[in-house]
Design goal:
- With 743 residues, the protein is an alpha/beta fold.
- 48% of the residues lie in helices and 22% in strands.
- It is built from 29 helices and 26 strands.
- The strands form five sheets. An eight-stranded mixed beta barrel has the order 18-19-21-22-23-24-25-26, surrounded by four helices.
- Strand 4, helix 5 and strand 5 form a beta-alpha-beta unit.
- It starts with a strand and ends in an 11-residue tail after the last helix.
């Protein structure tokens, strides 16, 4: 098949979109830039492509069953169905699955549920025992859905291949039986040409024929094969298998069911796995014996086992992942309730891990995670569970008798990091922060226990890291404080407490003022002047960044047009656009509307987006392309800090790269940053992109950038961010020089 067909049956349209987004990938591009990125930032290039999935959606069980029947009748069946457990007012998930399997018993099913309507036992009672059914708890993460989709469609494909293979093999054996009447030598040649081991026995229990492959696969001694006695051969074969008695019983059953065709799996003591296909041997419609075909499926079985492991384990460390962790936690809750005992959930996070990644490369970071997992695993008891959630986060389920025991365990875990890790010929030192929640005191479900342990972990980081904290009700109060901050920000928007400053950007060759960057400020009535770092995170978290971003864009465009109408020199304005703004479906229309209302020509507007925004949502390529068609300038802000593939530079129609100030600050102090800056300028020139350096403050920095032909600069060397009044004064006399400002 070209594509694997997947159907999502759920009454929530948003779920349909989520599955399509999660299970769809785009082609990678620009291998040369990938290599250059890897060389610049010492990052391993990873392939995260998925198999080609063809995704169909249905909102009700009846609709989904109709689609599945149509596909089955057209001989283009679905491999996998994600079925919601609740789909009012129609069939629920259980009823839907019953109807699906009446049509197609091979389709793999994943029940998606956030409820406890059916236990696993009830599900089995309703649907019967089957290995075609898994349960996925909501909310689910992308990795879980992708792993399930990959594993189950592969399983479905292997099943179809096996059936097709056996069908072909059945025909092949029939053809060979017919050939036996014509030429015994031809039959023998055919037997020897097979990659499978073939054995033919008579009705009277005598070995009629076999091929060399059969002898080699089973390592049959010559003296046994020469006896021509099927019983002696079976006795020898039993000695090679893990379950000899079961094999013997199965052979006796096959002998009694003379007209049956059978497929059996045979497991060897040395780990090999064979499929045994047997069928009657007919001559002129009369049964004269039985043909056994042995197919080595060891590699395939190992692949299936690996896929099943990958669905529930972390690929990097081999530890249980979130799916298996939550299952283990549910088991722990059940056991604790039965035994009147309790346990701890320890949320474990490495301190300053991002610094390790950024300074030593992601490859070193991965090695550190593996070593961390190894140390933690060595300290675990058999009854405890250690899992990795992703990134540098680990979770431990620790069964305990008293709180002193958990305190001792937490101290023991922290002590594991007193010794540095030896990675890439250097010693890497790192500490950890641990948050602890207790069952049942701090929660009665896996989600609540995990959330509270996570809150405690962040509290540990606030206390300077390298410590542990128990969850307390005070942490709920801190959450309320965050809510208060959101309310204040909403009030600030309503009361127009937000305003813009403008920082000039100069063309370096002639030190000419060519543009300004619009910078957001908040004049808080009690706290005074607040910078974006003080309130943008909460705006991002709450979604307020979207209306704020639209206000900034409108205000900046209106101000530039007002200065132009006053006869001041026309300049470009740069406005930052966040990831959430780019994800808005109406972004293009919003920009068009603002340009139309303000009357500003598109060439005087520059939109800035960061590398992280690009890489977190490659679909923005279409948005950027549409913006370019309007005539708007596009720039990448903080260039060089994303540690990512540079392939997007060719895929996205950009105009300008802004080198992050963190590189500029280290000019003449760190040679590596100077090399990176030169490389950035060279890349930009080769791609016909303009380059702007941020954070320029000294003569040395300015001279370095001049020497290496950087196009434009921005920073305190020329000017601080200016108020509207100060900026207007500068436009009337646009000369370089530090301009004092209260902003």
């Amino acid at each position: 098949m070209t594509n694997f067909r997947i159907i999502v049956i759920d009454d929530n349209q948003a779920i349909h979109h989520d599955f399509i987004k999660i299970l769809t990938t785009k082609e990678s591009s620009s291998a040369e830039l990938d290599k250059l990125s890897a060389k610049l930032f010492n990052k391993k290039i990873e392939d995260v492509t998925l198999p080609p999935f063809e995704i169909t959606t249905a909102s009700q069980g009846q609709e989904g069953v109709a689609l599945i029947k149509k596909a089955y009748d057209e001989k283009s069946p679905f491999a996998l169905a994600f079925v919601d457990i609740r789909m009012p007012p129609g069939w629920d998930g259980i009823e839907t699955i019953k109807h699906i399997w009446e049509i197609d018993k091979d389709i793999q099913i994943v029940i998606c549920t956030a409820y406890s309507d059916y236990s696993w036992e009830e599900t089995v009672a309703n649907l019967g025992k089957t290995d075609n059914l898994l349960i996925l708890k909501k909310p689910f993460d992308q990795v879980s859905v992708r792993q399930l989709a990959c594993a189950l469609t592969k399983k479905w494909e292997l099943l179809q291949n096996t059936r097709q293979y056996h069908s072909l093999l059945k025909q092949k054996v029939a053809d060979r039986t017919l050939s036996l009447q014509k030429s015994l030598s031809l039959v023998k040649a055919t037997l020897e040409s097979s990659n499978d081991g073939i054995l033919v026995v008579s009705e009277t229990g005598k070995i009629v024929d076999f091929n060399k492959r059969f002898i080699d696969m089973w390592q049959i001694p010559r003296n046994i094969i020469e006896t021509k006695d099927e019983k002696q051969l079976i006795d020898f074969m039993q000695t090679e298998l893990t379950n000899a008695d079961k094999f013997k019983e199965r052979m006796q059953e096959i002998e009694k069911q003379a007209d049956s065709e059978n497929i059996d799996v045979i497991k060897f003591k040395d780990g090999k796995i064979f499929e045994c296909f047997s069928q009657p041997q007919l001559l002129n419609d009369k049964k004269v014996g039985r043909v056994f075909t042995f197919h080595d499926v060891t590699k395939r079985a190992k692949l299936e086992e690996d896929l099943a492991f990958q669905a529930t384990h972390d690929a990097l460390t081999g530890l249980p992942n979130r799916i298996l962790l939550l299952d283990k936690m549910r088991q722990a809750i059940k056991t604790a309730n039965e035994n009147k005992s309790y346990f701890a959930v320890m949320f474990f996070d490495l301190d300053r891990f991002k610094l390790i990644n950024d300074s030593l490369s992601h490859a070193v970071g991965d090695e550190l995670l593996k070593f961390t997992a190894s140390r933690l695993r060595a300290s675990m008891r058999a009854e405890d569970t250690l899992a990795r959630l992703g990134g540098d986060e680990f979770v431990i389920i620790f069964n305990l008798d008293n709180e002193n025991q958990i305190i001792n365990k937490a101290n023991q875990l922290l002590s594991l990091f007193q010794r540095p890790f030896k990675i890439a010929d250097r010693e890497v030192s790192i500490t950890a922060s641990i948050g602890i929640s207790l069952y049942p005191k701090d929660g009665d479900s896996p989600d609540i226990l995990m959330r509270n342990a996570d809150s405690a972990m962040y509290r540990a980081k606030e206390f300077g890291s390298n410590n542990f904290q128990f969850y307390t009700e005070e942490m709920n109060a801190r959450s309320l404080a965050k809510l208060d901050q959101e309310i204040e920000l909403r009030r600030a928007i309503a009361k127009q407490e937000l305003f813009l400053c403008y920082q000039p950007q100069y063309e370096l060759s002639g030190e000419k003022l060519v543009a300004v960057e619009a910078l957001l400020r908040w004049q808080h009535p009690e706290k005074g002047l607040l910078l974006p770092i003080d309130f943008i995170p909460i705006a991002e978290e709450t979604g307020l960044i979207v209306p704020i971003g639209e206000w900034v864009l409108h205000t900046a465009c209106a101000q530039i047009k007002a200065w132009q109408d006053e006869g001041l020199p026309p300049i470009r304005v740069a406005v930052n656009v966040t990831e959430k703004q780019f994800k808005q479906s109406n972004l293009i229309e919003t920009v068009k509307k603002i340009l139309r209302i303000t009357g500003l020509k598109p060439e005087f507007l520059e939109l800035e987006l960061t590398e992280n925004v690009i890489l977190s949502n490659m679909e923005i390529i279409n948005s950027v392309t549409e913006l370019k068609k309007l005539g708007v300038t596009i720039a990448v802000d903080d260039f060089g800090t994303g540690y990512s593939s540079l392939s997007y530079l060719k895929r996205i129609p950009l105009d300008r790269l802004k080198i992050d100030s963190s590189f500029i600050q280290h000019i003449q102090t760190e040679g590596d940053d100077e090399v990176i800056i030169r490389a950035m300028i060279s890349i930009a020139k080769n791609l016909n992109l303009e380059v702007l350096a941020e954070g320029v403050e000294t003569d040395n920095q300015l001279n370095f950038l001049k020497t290496h032909e950087c196009g434009e600069i921005q920073g305190y060397y020329f000017s601080k961010p200016l108020t509207v009044t100060e900026m207007k004064k500068l436009l009337k006399n646009p000369v370089k020089g530090t301009i004092s400002s209260s902003s």
